[in-house]
Amino acid sequence: MRKIFMLLAFALMIESGLNLSLDPDASTDLEQYIRDDFTISLRHIRPRRKAKISIEALFMIDFPSAKNKFTFYLDRKAKRVTIDINSNSQIFSKHLNAPSLNETITIRSLAVSFSENKIALFIDCKNVYKDEMEFNLSKLYLNMDEPDVKLLRERKYPLFIDRNIESALSRTNCQKTSKQKGYRKMMKDSESHGYYNDQDVNRKRGRREHRYNNRYGHSQNQLINPSYRGDISVVSGDCDENLLAKMNDLIALVKKLEKDIANQHGDVRRLQSLIENCAGC
């Protein structure tokens, strides 16, 4: 009898220190979501400045007519989330272990997913706990003569209710974070396996030059080599000899024109000198 009294006193003490308040809007939403799988998530859970009490109440799902309450606590020191189940004045607890918890960092997101009698805990986009439970909240609600459910929560932290865990995680940009990590991992693996090393680059360049040489009959390097002059034939002997003769004739014609132009410039200068020195003019 004494143990029962102490247990009830402890329960009342905890209830009085919960600081949970009824959220009518969230309760209405929960009535719609609880008929099937659903997820409750909270964001930006900051560590307490005064760590006298390491246990902090997050939210409570209350079935008034069925006399069932499910209260979720965050226990940073023990690194777990605890569910206190009050069913017809009988209290027992279920612990969801979360090894990544500590007493100093802010939890960016905490999500509890319910699927039939299975429960999963996600902290900062990571699934840290998954197990089967002795209860099914959806069946408990649907089997009531007058279905009724209330949601009480800690007002300091934003709370959301979603149909699935994917929607809850996308709200905290978990997908973006995972993509960035995946990209960094891909680049790291590429570097470690040498996917972008100089040897492969040179091999690819050699294959391109080989295809070019097979198509045009000469190397790309010859086209950009500055040692090849325009007045020296670069055509290989495999080409038509008529084309070679025409090119040589064209070179000779250019040289003749250059010589003629030089002679004309000389004649113009002599004529200019005679005009300037003409006494009779």
Summarize the topology.
Blueprint: H1 2-16, E1 21-22, H2 24-33, E2 38-45, E3 55-63, E4 68-75, E5 80-87, E6 90-97, E7 107-115, E8 118-123, E9 126-132, H3 137-142, E10 150-153, E11 159-162, H4 165-171, H5 174-193, H6 198-216, H7 220-224, H8 241-276
Antiparallel strand pairs: 1-10, 2-7, 2-11, 3-4, 3-10, 4-5, 5-6, 7-8, 8-9
Brief overview, please?
This protein is of the alpha+beta class and 281 residues long. Helix content is 42%, strand content 26%.
- The secondary-structure element order is HEHEEEEEEEEHEEHHHHH
Radius of gyration: 43 Å
- What percent of the residues sit in helical stretches (DSSP H or I)? 40-55%
**CATH architecture grouping of the largest domain:** Sandwich
Overall pLDDT, averaged? 77
In total, the number of domains comes to 3
What is the strand content?
A: 25-35%
**Biggest sheet overview:** 6 strands, antiparallel
How many helix segments? 8
* CATH level 1 class label of the largest domain: Mainly Beta
Poorly predicted segments:
12-17, 190-201, 222-228
The main sheet orders its strands as: 1-10-3-4-5-6
The CATH topology name of the largest domain reads Jelly Rolls
Give the structural class.
alpha+beta
Distance between the termini: 147 Å
Number of strands: 11
Morphology call:
rod-shaped
Spell out the key features of this protein.
alpha+beta; six-stranded antiparallel β-sheet; 3 domains; Jelly Rolls; 281 residues; five-stranded antiparallel β-sheet; single chain
